[in-house]
Amino acid sequence: MATVLKVFDKWKEFLAERVSQAGHAGMSEETISKLAFQIGEFLANKVDPENEQERVLKELWDAGDEQEKRTIARLMVKLVDKG
Q1: Which residue ranges in the chain fall short of pLDDT 70?
Q2: pTM for the whole thing?
Q3: How many other CB atoms are found less than 10 A from the CB of residue 16?
Q4: Which of 77, 66, 81, 64 is nearest to 33 (CA)?
Q5: Spatial separation of the C-alpha atoms in residues 56 and 54, rounded to whole Å
Q6: Which residues are within 8 A (CB) of 16 and not within 5 positions of it... i.e. 6 or more apart?
């Protein structure tokens, strides 16, 4: 997993693939957003940022309350779900 997170573009590609798979599996947008929130929680608690983009996201995540974190998660899904 650490190799996926080394390059932010690779992370976005990874997330985009997972969002696409979830959509094709019939998951709702709300379910996908909930999963993105859980992934964000995991990353914030278990993975040290390895570049500036990850560091900014972690700082935003850490500064936010639960609702704001859910918004960040939804925005990350929107960022990669351009199709």
Answers
A1: 1-6, 83
A2: 0.79
A3: 16
A4: 77
A5: 5
A6: 80, 81
